[in-house]
Amino acid sequence: MAPNVGGAKGGAKGAAKGGKSTNLSSASRVSKSAKKDGPKRPPPKEQKTKPRTANENLKKKKKRVYTEKELDLPELNQITPVGVIKPKGKKKGKTFVDDAEGMMTILAMVNAEKEGQIESKMMKARQLEEIREAKKAEAEARMKERKNKFDDVKDSIRQKKKGKGGDKAAEPTSIKDSISKPGRSKKKTVAFA
Amino acid sequence: MGVGRRMKKQGPPAPLDESKITMLKKRKAGGAEAPPKPAPAKRRRSDADEAVSKKDAPKKKKVNGAAPKADSKEPKKQPSVTKKAVPVPMSDDDEDMEDDDDEFGDLDGISEGSMDSDDEVEGLSDLEDDNSVVDSDEEGHTRGAMFSDDEDSDAEERLTAANIEGLSRKLDAEQQEEEEAAEQEMQEAALQTNIAAPDVFADQTQQGLAPDLQLLRQRITDTIRILGDLKTLGLPGKSRTDYIDLLLDDICTYYGYTRFLAEKLFNLFTPREAFAFFEANETPRPVVIRTNTLRTNRRSLAQALINRGVVLEPVGKWSKVGLQVFESPVPLGATPEYLAGHYILQAASSFLPVMALAPQPNERVLDMASAPGGKTTYMSALMRNTGCVVANDASKPRAKGLIGNIHRLGCKNTIVTNMDARTAFPKAMGGFDRVLLDAPCTGTGVISKDPGVKTSKNERDFLAIPHMQRQLLLAAIDSVDHASKTGGYIVYSTCSVTVEENEAVVQYVLRKRPNVKIVDTGLGSFGSPGLLSYMGKTFDPKMALTRRYFPHRENVDGFYVCKLKKTAVTPVAKSDDAEPRSKGPKKARSAPSAASTDDESVDKTPIVDENGHAADFEGGAFSSFEDPEDAERIARAERNRLRRKGLNPKGVLNKPKKSKVSVSEKTSETATPSQKEETEAVASKRTSNEPKSEKKTVVKGDKKQVTTEKEEKKTAAKGKVEKKEKKSAKKASK
Amino acid sequence: MRSLTEEETRTLFTKLASYTGRSLNSLITPAEDGSQSVFRLQGSRVYYVNKDIANLSVSFPRDQLLSMGTLIGKYTKTGKFRINLTALDLLAQNARYKVWIKANGVMPLLYGGSVLKAHVARFSEDCPENAGVVILDSNDVPLGFGVTARSSAQIAKLDPTSIAVHRQADAGEYLREEDTLFTT
């Protein structure tokens, strides 16, 4: 309040002629608080009219512009995706590669990458191939084993048949007995235990 | 490998003919070849013996009508046959044959050399190799084609030196027979025409709704024959125009042309030739493909296609890249070779403008109307993918096909644009070394391809299209760099045969652009020269250097090719030349050429009237026309005009004082103004030329008055305007 | 029409490199006669064109310039690059892997089919699975390109009717895709 009044006074001093008007203005600002001086003041009409046309008032009306941060909007509601922040101060637009060197570097990078990929692919393929080979070898070995086994069995059967003519009955039974007996005995022991 | 053998057909003319005959023979299964000569003679004779019944008459006359055609073919065939007969017995040992081969092979190698960019020597050696291994290595197909043909005429083949005499005697006899037949025919013709001549007009009256085509055709041939010798054959009461009228009507009904177009085309030729032309428009032209030298050469392409069972041979001596296809078991537009861009289906006629243009490597060339790209890709191939070809087309959908062809054929030096060439060039780009303008046209040369032309083109088209062609050609000329070291050429071509679209257009630009001149097309003797005069118009004497092609003469589409050379800059546009060109540096050299244009414009000045002249005419220039009656009428018209506009009602009332007297004499005082007028007019007629000068002055005075009034009004209006302006200014200041 | 950005160049080269390999260098180095070719973007389409021609073509309005030099392909909306059939020449010249097919495989390919094992006449050595490969006929005429379905070693073991190369583009597209091949 106090500086305001002082200001008004200063204005009055500066412009001797317009003293009244400045006074009025000052009064208008402090209209309610300074009601006591009321009778001197002109009617409130002027109060209304003047501020509307005046520049200062227009300025006052101007709304404050909030930055996006101040608004504190939820981030999902934006046009630009959340993660993308445009670097400030950087030149707008695209960067073209029109010189051979630039192209070459890019090409070299790409080539290296591709080569690497192909290399790795080939490596992988080779490894896979090796594994496959190994598996195959293994499988073959197993097959061989099995076949051998089978052959053995077949041979044995054959021998059995041959043996039938001679002492065929005695041998198998004896074998059976020899095999079965220890098993049974063991089982028994386990069972009892 | 067999190519060498096949290609030699392309060499000297005689073997080419021979081969053609073998082709014919092959296609028209063996036996058909021998009979035709004796057979017609027999038939004619029998016909002559028979009483002339109505049904037989047409046949007979047809034969007669076809006679000229047959005659034209016969001399071609005959020598070839005799030639064939002679060398065959000679070549009883193989060495002779091989010599022959080499001879042709040489030629072949030369012609191929430039195309393949092979060394000539290489080509030769290749050929020699071919010959050495020819028997073992040659593909069965080609060889089969050659020899099986020969074996068709086995009887001839077996002839050796021993019975050559017999053969020649036989030939002589044949010839004699033919001659006799021809004579007889002539006599018959004379006889018939005497009978037929009256028929020609008699039939016309009988003509019903559905005309009998055979009769019609007969009458056409008859009329043509009569027109050929009107004095002896024509009816006494009938003039040439009557016959031509009849003929045109018949042609319209027989071939389905509009009368307008039929007349236009008919006027280009003699009646006989016109008939041949119309006939040729009914048969398709041979299918021709162009080798894409960017991807392959003709030899290997031909080999590849032959392997697919295609029957073909070089299109002619005039082209090194064309192959004429006789029959094909596979669709030519979908073979792997086609898709790989080894060839393009292209009419023989559209080779010609590009050959005339002869673009050189590293040039900048423009094709103003390029779709579907046959010519563009040919140019690109001739330039070996160097330099730059700008291919423009005004139609976007058509440009799509153009781009397809360009990519398929592997042309990498092209820019494809979609602009209106009339305005876009040289605005967007100029300074071309060569420009090809294959202008959009009415298509009267390709009626066999598009019969719609017969009916779709009207008078308007024949005004509008040449107009566009002129604009295009002017643009083409202005786009060329005259100072080009290698070029400076423009080729103008159309697939139309009419003079309006060809010579007339060229003549127009010669007048408009004195800095161009017609030069030789470089197409040699192929085609016929351009017309020097037509329907009372005479053209530049150099117009003979341009080339015309007709379906009935060259068996290609109707075509026109003109090559122009630009010698200097286009002079700065004159006042009547409403096309200021964007090319800047013209002032320096414009002086000499401008002088020549002056001559041109001087020619024009009497035609073009200016306002000042018109004013003069009122006073003096038309004085010679001032017959009294005219003056009277003019005065009356003027008066009427003024009165009708309400400008000078007095002009009526004041002037005819004498007429008023006459009116009073007539005692019609209550007459309405219109009646007054009439009476007035009558009176003025009576008074004839007495008041001439008076009237004029009066009229003029009136005019002056009017004008002054107008001026006053104008000034008043101006004042108002000024006031308004002032007001507005004040407002503004406020 | 403009030259490519770094990103676009990388995308393009990555794609091309899957077909061409090291010799891609020759595309961007000047030829012996000093002429150099460049890549140019017009709309979404990439053209490979002589530099002089590219410079000339700036005279024409963008919407009226339909094509220049050789069309390589186009960027999709998602930023990938799709090679067009028209790049075949380029690829064939610099191809890393090639497959030659027999006459009986030509027509199936041109009708848009894949290359079967039965059609394969010859295969480049050491070709891995899913590698870009140029397809040629027995006369060394390039007909298209594709991606190998198996490595060259495995293909030998396949049965005749199984697919050896997945087709990407073939010359038959000039007919089949006539309307869409060049629409911008």
TrEMBL record, chain A:
One GO BP annotation of this record: mRNA transport
Signal peptide as annotated in the record: none
Protein name listed in UniProt: 60S ribosomal subunit assembly/export protein LOC1
Domain of life: Eukaryota
Positions of the UniProt region annotated as Disordered: 1-69, 135-193
Function: Required for efficient assembly and nuclear export of the 60S ribosomal subunit.
Compositionally biased residues, Basic and acidic residues: 34-49, 135-170
Subunit description: Component of the 66S pre-ribosomal particle.
GO MF assignments: mRNA binding
Low complexity bias (residue ranges): 18-31
Cross-referenced InterPro entries: Loc1
Stretches with biased composition (Gly residues): 7-17
Localisation: Nucleus, Nucleolus
GO cellular component, one term: nucleolus
Annotated Basic residues bias: 183-193
Keyword Zinc belongs to the record: no
Record bears the keyword Ribonucleoprotein: no
Keyword annotations: Coiled coil, mRNA transport, Nucleus, Ribosome biogenesis, Transport
Family recorded in the similarity comment: Belongs to the LOC1 family.
UniProtKB/TrEMBL annotation, chain B:
Coiled coil: 164-194
A biological process term (GO) from this entry: maturation of LSU-rRNA
One GO CC annotation: nucleolus
PROSITE patterns found in the cross-reference section: NOL1_NOP2_SUN (PS01153), SAM_MT_RSMB_NOP (PS51686)
Region (Disordered): 1-157, 571-734
Subcellular localization(s) per the UniProt record: Nucleus, Nucleolus
Domain of life: Eukaryota
A molecular function (GO) term: RNA binding
Keywords: Coiled coil, Methyltransferase, Nucleus, Ribosome biogenesis, RNA-binding, S-adenosyl-L-methionine, Transferase
Keyword S-adenosyl-L-methionine carried by entry: yes
Record-listed S-adenosyl-L-methionine binding positions: A369, S370, A371, P372, G373, G374, K375, D393, D420, D438
Domain SAM-dependent MTase RsmB/NOP-type: 277-567
InterPro entries for the chain: MeTrfase_RsmB-F_NOP2_cat, MeTrfase_RsmB-F_NOP2_dom, Nop2p, RCMT, RCMT_NOP2, RsmB/NOL1/NOP2-like_CS, SAM-dependent_MTases_sf
Composition-biased stretches (Acidic residues): 91-106, 115-138
UniProt keyword annotation of Nucleus present: yes
Catalytic residues of the enzyme: C495 (nucleophile)
Composition skew (Basic and acidic residues), residue ranges: 46-56, 602-616, 631-640, 687-725
Residues of the signal peptide: none
Family: Belongs to the class I-like SAM-binding methyltransferase superfamily. RsmB/NOP family.
Protein's name in the database: Nucleolar protein 2
Species in which this protein is naturally found: Penicillium egyptiacum
Organism lineage string: Eukaryota, Fungi, Dikarya, Ascomycota, Pezizomycotina
UniProtKB/TrEMBL annotation, chain C:
Subcellular localization(s) per the UniProt record: Nucleus, Nucleolus
GO biological process, alphabetically ordered: assembly of large subunit precursor of preribosome
GO CC, any one term: nucleolus
Keywords: Nucleus, Ribosome biogenesis, RNA-binding
Gene Ontology terms, MF aspect: RNA binding
Oligomer and partners: Interacts with pre-ribosome complex.
Functional description taken from the UniProt entry: Required for proper 27S pre-rRNA processing and 60S ribosome subunit assembly.
Family of this protein: Belongs to the NIP7 family.
Protein name from the UniProt record: 60S ribosome subunit biogenesis protein NIP7
